[in-house]
Write a structure and sequence with these properties.
heterodimer; A: alpha+beta; Uridine Diphospho-n-acetylenolpyruvylglucosamine Reductase, domain 2; Enolase-like, domain 1; 3 domains; 5-stranded antiparallel β-sheet; globular; B: alpha+beta; 2 domains; 5-stranded mixed β-sheet; 5 helices; binds flavin-adenine dinucleotide; binds FE2/S2 (inorganic) cluster
Chain lengths: 288, 164
Amino acid sequence: MKPQSFAYVATSTVEEAVRALGEAGEDAKVLAGGQSLVPMMNLRLARPSVLVDINPIADLAGVEVGPARLSLGALVRHRSLELGVSPGALGRLLREVAGHVAELPVRVRGSVGGSLAHADPAAEWCLVAVALGAEIELAGPGGRRSLGAEEFLEGPFSTALAADELVVAVHLPLRAGWAYGFAEHALTHGSFAQAGACVGLELLDGVVAGCRIAVMGTSGRAERVPAAEAAATGRPAEAAPDAAAEATRDALAPTGYGEVTSDYLRALAAATVRRATAAAATGTVEAR
Amino acid sequence: MIEVSLEVNGTARALRVEARTTLADALRERLGLTGTHLGCEQGACGACTVLLDGEPVRSCLLFAVQCAGHSVTTVEALASEGLLHPVQRAFHERHALQCGFCTPGFLTLLAGTLDRAVELGTTLEERDLAELVGANLCRCTGYRPILAAARQAAAEMGVWSAPG
Ligand SMILES: Cc1cc2nc3c(=O)[nH]c(=O)nc-3n(C[C@H](O)[C@H](O)[C@H](O)COP(=O)(O)OP(=O)(O)OC[C@H]3O[C@@H](n4cnc5c(N)ncnc54)[C@H](O)[C@@H]3O)c2cc1C
Ligand code: FES
Ligand code: FES
């Protein structure tokens, strides 16, 4: 099918885009990579009357490595992250995760800001943002504000974004002494995962001193699993994967759908937590 | 209607299109470049894959107006001066097509990715090639001859990292 007619507005600054969204009203949509929005428009599941194209905004495509955080502009493409935007443990994690987001031609266009704004419950970048405690920076008519990932992602396909706001950047904390792991289960490589986990471990003399664990696929959005974090903390690194997996299985009660039962999802979540924790426990540690 | 100037297969073109015209439809219906096929129009099948500034993209998910000032390469321009691209030749020699509906998408996907690997000086392993051809759908061949062609072309272009 073909999309319904719309007015096209190309913008070259954040201010211009925010103004265009304000003038166009509720019915306008931001166009980033178009890899989620345009399929919905082609199916006429989305019928925006105005598309505000942010692709020409050069300011949104940058990457900044600061002392305490890695900042990704909203328009940084999945493909750039796959090719590598920063060194160290976090850069490595992002490279690995990007390779699991869709297929190469989709990664060439799809953007990290678009993934967060779209808030698909199976989106890898939403999982990573929750697991690492990312800050999402938004721009609106009143200026800028930042929200934690858990506050920003409100539910399936639903965020705290107002109709005239733009995601401008995602800031990921750089934590010295931390190592990361990611695992997901998808029916074929590149397709949306049924479940996945992202884990950060602070390792001190082979013992887990700090831990952040998030899973996706078990509810309408990526969620931390505090019970698994508590179970892994204080343990020797080798014992952390099993402890975290067991706690995940006990803590979660996902709702099944179709042939995918609640028990199956619980087992998948636990298995991906085990694999992601094991990967972190043996992975590169962020330099101090 | 919006005026768009872009480069298609090395030639500057100016088009008047509706904003909602996808690049795929502009290529097929306005420029007569029907080598680019449309299957799903949802980004899933890859039949519509073309190169945008050298990178493979789904032309069903891009509006023609977004391509102003950019360069687009379709399957029609992979061969140059009567010489097939190594990927095209490998498809021919390895019988990597049956009905041929998916073929233009695979050719642009592979040619774009292998050409870029040559530029970057990187190599692809078996696993990379398998993942890459998994980006597009083929209902006929079962993929084995497509992978064989991909391997052959990658080897010929010096970007194949054979299993150790
Ligand atoms: C075949 C296929 C397979 C896929 N598989 C996966 C997968 O496995 N995992 C995965 O995570 N994703 C997958 N995707 C989706 C892909 O990652 C998209 O790129 C991503 O979800 C959206 O990013 P985008 O830049 O394309 O956004 P768009 O499609 O342009 O926009 C998506 C939504 O977000 C809004 N938006 C975009 N950017 C901003 C911004 N900066 N500020 C405010 N609002 C904004 C838009 O208005 C729209 O509502 C797949 C897509 C396809 C076509
Ligand atoms: S027609 Fe574009 S991906 Fe199927
Ligand atoms: S050859 Fe028929 S779909 Fe691939």
